[in-house]
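Lab manual, section 2.4: Encoding a predicted structure.

Procedure: take the sequence of the chain (313 residues), apply the prediction step described in section 2.3, and record the output as C-alpha cells. A sample record is shown.
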Amino acid sequence: MAIKPETLKLLEQLEEKYTAIGQDVETHLEGLLYSEPITYWDYIQTDALLNLQIQRTTLPDEMVFIMYHQINELLFKMILWEIEQVAHNEHITASFFSSKLMRISRYFDMLTSSFSIMQEGMEVEQYMKFRTTLTPASGFQSALYRKIEFASTDLINLIDARFRDTIDRNTPYEHALEHLYWQAAGKDYKTGKKSYLLSSFEEKYKNEFIAFTQEYNTINLYAKFKELPKEVKEDDALRKAMRHYDHTVNITWVLAHYNAARYYLSGGNKNTEVEEATGGSDWTKYMHPKYQRRIFFPELWTEQELKNWGHNV
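Recorded output:
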C-alpha cells in the first residue's frame, strides 16, 4: 500500500523532532503499536479528582463547602499559570499582556459570582454546625492565593499600610513577610504573638513564600509593566485591563468574599453580631479593602482613587 504524501511529510517532521532530542523515531513509532487510546477519564484523572472530597461530619452541605473550595484552588492554579506566562516572557506586547490580564480577570469574575452560589447552596444551620469541626483551618491559609498576590505586584504593595514607610527593597524578605497585610489576621503587633492559624501556615509555607517572592521580585506583573517602553505602557487597552484586574481582585472579589463570610458568621442575620472565623482570625480588619488598601498597580490610579480605595462600595 502506497504511503500518502501527507503521511510521508508527517514522518519527516517526526524524524526531525526526535533527531533534535537524540531519540530514535522508529522506537517511538513502534511504541504506538502497543499504546491504548486515551480516554476522557484517564486524561482528566476523574477517578482521582472525585475521590478527594473527604467529609469530617455527617452534614450533607459540608460536601458543598469542600468542593467549592477545591474548585477555588483549581482556579487559583489557572490564574498562576497565566501570570507565569507573562512573568517569564521577555518580549511582551500590549495585546499579549492585555489578553492575559483579561483572561485572569474572567477567572476572578467566576470566583466572585460563585459566592452567591455557595451562599444559596448551603444551609446556614448546617454550616454553623460543621464549621466547628474545621477549626483551626481557614481559607486564609490558601498558599496559591498568596502566590497570586506576590506574582501580581511589588512586595511593598502587600505590606501592612502601617509599616510601609519602614520597608524598602533593601529589607530582608523574611522581615518584609513579617509585615504583610494578612499578618493582621493572626498577629498581635504589640507582643509579636501569633495565632495557631498564622504560625501553622508559616511553618508550612514560609520558606516557599520567601523563595517565590525572590523569584518574582523583578518579574511580577507590576514590575513587568514598569519595564515596558513608554508607548506600550500608554496603550489604552492595556491600562484598562490592568485597572480592571486590580479592581476585580482587590475590591470586587474581596468584598464578595467578605460579604459571604459575614452572612454565614452572622448566622444569616445581618443584625446579629458576627462571630470569629474558623481559624480565629480578625478577618474584617485584614479582608476589607478600605483597611489594608491592597492595590497592585498604584501608578495607574489617580490620587483621589487611591485615597478612596474600598470606601465607596
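Check your result against the sample. The chain has 16 helices and no strands.
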